[in-house]
Amino acid sequence: MTHPLKTLWDKPSRLVVGLMSGTSADGVDAVLTKITGAGLDTKVEQLGFYFQPFESAARQRILEVAGGSFGGAREVCLLGAYLGKCYADAVRELLRQTGTEKVDLIGTHGQTVWHAPEQTPYLGGTVRGTLQIGDPSYLAEEFGCPVVSDFRVRDMAAGGLGAPLVPYTEFILYRREDADVALQNIGGIGNVTLLPAGCRLDEVTAFDTGPGNMVMDALVTRMTAGKLSYDDGGRLAASGRVIPELLGWMLTDPYLEKKPPKTTGREYYGEDYVRALLARGDYPVVDVVATATAFTAESIALSLRRFAKRMPGVLVVGGGGSRNPTLLRRLQEALPECRVQTQEDLGFSSDAKEAAAFAILANEAVFGLCNNAPSATGADHGVVMGRVNL
Fold this sequence. Notes:
Blueprint: H1 6-10, E1 13-21, E2 27-36, E3 43-53, H2 56-66, H3 73-98, E4 105-122, E5 125-133, H4 137-143, E6 147-149, H5 152-157, H6 166-174, E7 181-186, E8 189-195, E9 205-211, H7 214-223, H8 235-239, H9 244-250, H10 254-257, H11 266-269, H12 271-278, H13 285-307, E10 314-318, H14 325-334, E11 339-342, H15 353-366, H16 374-377, E12 387-389
Parallel strand pairs: 1-4, 4-6, 7-10, 10-11
Antiparallel strand pairs: 1-2, 2-3, 4-5, 6-12, 7-8, 8-9
């Protein structure tokens, strides 16, 4: 009997959809790519992008479940099925907009609702774990192609943190022989990848720098009683003033001192952190938003100064934070010796970058190629991440 993946192996190029819904829980990024080859020979062409926002009630439910103190087995089960259908809706619209009848492969990150990369006391021992939900079976059933999901678990089983995963794809696509490249994603969490000139995969450094938009988003939601979920264009932060004593307290965060490999998420910078921040004093919330914006920029700058072997000449910013000019200005001020650019400045798409990464990771998985970066995640060795739903 012919192996169900043989048709993929025999094709010189494949139409692959990548899906990402991140810690901001704002919606689903869906990208259609044409991938030629595999491994270091991979070439990627973006053919289309679609963003499907979550309904406000769905976003609120995701944030409640991800907070760790709400819901149980029933809630996670139903939310996972709901998200699986949302992902299928996003792919359906992406294919409609691009006039595409059939794709060869789908890679889906899923929605992280808990990530415990450090040893955690449990049932008399300690365990580490991660959970991304959004049932891939709905995608496989509707689109009739293999679907790769649950990427993080295998890296953690091999001793890694299960994050960050994008550095492997950045090594393939952005590595240069003649210059250091630093890539900073600013989603809910900020993460940076450092690619020294002419580096090997085992020389790639990547880690979470701290909060990206997460704390800012939570403050804006509180400030506007839910009418806004983020600081559009950085206008609120621009209208406030940075509170020096509050920023100073934020910069004492022990996570910033921790050496890579390291990762963090909503379990650290979620509601408890925001409550502690607001409890520091009776400040105007708009000033706290301005301070949180400055903190994101300063945490990125500190990360580069502490953990980069040498300061890169250019920092390329992607993710939702790249559309916040106030944040970019703060970042440039914090890094006067480094030119801050966006993915768009290089002719790429900030919106599609992470979703495209999961298209590439899925492509590597079906070819049986190791697709983690152990130097970034801390894994003992390279592994093939992703469960394949045929």
